[in-house]
UniProtKB/TrEMBL annotation:
One GO term of the biological process aspect: proteolysis
Pfam families: Peptidase_M29
Annotated organism of origin: Paenibacillus lutrae
Name under which the protein is recorded: Aminopeptidase
Gene Ontology MF, one: metallopeptidase activity
Family statement drawn from the similarity comment of this UniProt entry: Belongs to the peptidase M29 family.
Amino acid sequence: MRDPRMVTFARNIIRYSVELKAGENILIELIGIKDPELAKCFIEEVYAVGGNPIIELRDPAINRSMMLGATRQTLEKKAELELNRMKEMQAYVAVRGGDNVTETADVPEDRLKLYMSVYSRPVTNQRVNHTKWVVMRYPNGSMAQLANTSTEAFEDFYFQVCNLDYSKMEEAMEPLVELMNRTDKVRLVSPGTDLTFSIKDIPAIKCCGKRNIPDGEVYTAPVLNSVNGVISYNTPTVYSGTSFENVVLKLENGKIVEATSNNTARMNDILDTDEGARYIGEFAIGVNPYIQHPMKDTLFDEKIDGSIHFTPGQAYEIADNSNRSSVHWDIVLIQRPEYGGGEIWFDDVLIRKDGIFVLPELQCLNPENLK
């Protein structure tokens, strides 16, 4: 008998997140997922609404081997084939599992850069900008270990987070979107952080279960050259299979002029991938009431209640500051009291203190009102 939580999960993804319509093509990529039941649930839901499912099964260890040996010609051909397929899709779902989040940690930096720039970025750009897409993780023992829980407890947490009422969250986000859309100056203050930038005339986008699962953020982008100050992140972050902690960025006129961490050399190699990697492509505010602590998984960590993330690299075209890069690195700063506290100011008005929204019109986004 199917796990009813899994059935609800697949139904929400197909009917709410991507709003699949009859006759539409959807590519469903299952990455590192060994349980066929999830694929069956998705297929049944797609057929139920009259769509056309295309299923792709991928393995992270095989992808690592591909990265290690692929020539530019190989990656160009792979990109051509997959880009053409993506152009035929109206919707896209990716469910990512895998037993090892650092599977690509020993892939040389030049191989990672080649893979990202020649293959990954062109295909991702087509998917992000021209399909109805949603990306998510799926619970397994590795994720439970990162969250310091048992596998069973993590599964319960996962379905609680992923099957919440995202339509309620969507409505609650509207006042924040409206405020951000009329805001010019932003200031972030936390221990080791004092950062200012403008978001004037760059749209604010609410993320409420229609792009990521779990979800719960409102994002925009800083005006490209407006960022000045220092930001000290207080969560670990994994990028290209390498774990980084104690990340500190100093920015002048939009550019990261100094970057340190527990692995400063590797971090700067990533930031030197291309010119855009040292500029910021996204500023976002996290509000998911069920996600309280980091677990080295971006899709969860960037939604943490009382957090922000400030992202070196590529901007989204829907909230565009013109920055282009093969890097998009979401790094999280939590501003709740147990993580040192912090403040967000819009045009010299305090809007959130220690992770709690203080303006009356935004209090619907506080955790007690979203559960």
